[in-house]
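Recap for those who missed Tuesday's class. We walked through two folding examples back to back. For each one, the amino acid string is listed first and its predicted structure tokens come directly after. Nothing is annotated here on purpose, so try labeling regions yourself before you check the end of the notes.
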Amino acid sequence: MTSQSLKGTTVLVTGAAGGLGKAIATAYLSEGANVAICDINETRLNATREEFESTGRFLALKSDVTDEAAVQSLVEETVAKFGRLDILVNNAGMMDAFDPVGDLSKQTWDRVIGLNLTGSFLCMKYAVAQMQKQQEPRGGTILQIGSNASYMGFCAGAVYTVSKHGVAALVKHTAGHYGDEGIYAVGLMLGAMVDTNISEALGMHGFNQAAYAKNASASFRPEADAVQLRDVAKYCVFLADRSIAATANGSCVPFNKNWPKA
């Protein structure tokens, strides 16, 4: 970790003790940024803390992004350590079991909406409040991890699709309202990945095989179609450039190896 191109920049990545979030956090650290992460998996969080705390630019906090008080504290602790918040990466999320609406339980609906959509809203809310207070460089950037399911209707289950459509709307509205304050929002609409932990919270013991067989995702070929974590992380670093973020403000960018084909 020798690059200093983002020295003095503070990044908060949610759900980042493993999988995609950890890859993103590692990429920012490698560029010299101060990085705070949160996760609810304490074992994985402790291991990641041990791996990176020697940099002196790393903070790992156990936090539930569906809890408003916890999110407020997360942002406050990040700012207390590093002085500001320049970039929020809203990565925390969970997959569904491909249930169509007729098979979907309210319990699953509430859990997925709570984490994917409400959690993203709460993190944006407190990130924006902090970014509005900051002196030069004013503002900040919010990167929202979305999905093919943010703009396609039939490549996941019903509740995941609704939640990811919702985060795309959050990006567009936040970009429109706060862009003139130097606060930019960009969505990355990711294709399928095979080396994340997105399915852990729900548990694939409830996977709806019959529904999946009818779904567009049934055509997925991991060896050809999977999006690589390192490439998503590089894109997040690219968007740390304030001029690029300003130009991309309000964009929801497909990043999916053209699967399903455009």
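Example two. Treat it independently of the first, because the proteins are unrelated.
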Amino acid sequence: MKRNYHVKFLNEKDVALAEAVCSASEEYYLMEQDKPASKSDALKIITEIPNGKTRFDKFVLAVLDENEQPIGLVDIVSDYPRKGRWFIGLLLLTPAARGNGLGKVLHQTIKEWANDGGADSLTLGVLAENEKARGFFEHLGYTKAETKEATYGGKEHQVDIYVLEIK
């Protein structure tokens, strides 16, 4: 049976949709910050904007299934960290929505959207211990550019920065 998915652009009023995906993806938040996601974590996904960017540069989308249930979150910042490079801050599917090709389809859509928007590459960070995500993005053609230190929820990490050239 073919499943139908669509996206909704989120703003602060839609925090419940983001929170539902974050809560369903508890294993990611336990890895990232040693605690389940909170409403404030979900709100940060929607509202936190990198220095030098505006709310018009950031796009947060909920992926909804045919029953309007949130099954994924995508966070993208255009022309960050430089003009022509788009940053994927989050591409998160709930565990029930994984393993069926949806992540690959979403990524292809992001890639086409970025290309249409003038991007020459995509970049993202992956927690060094998140082997599944590393494998997923490497399979899509990303290459590791560097490793940085970062702290999330008080937990320190090594974050691998990946880049994919799209032009």
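Answers for example two:
The chain is about 30% helix and 35% strand.
The beta strands are 6-9, 58-64, 70-77, 85-93, 121-127, 143-152, 155-165.
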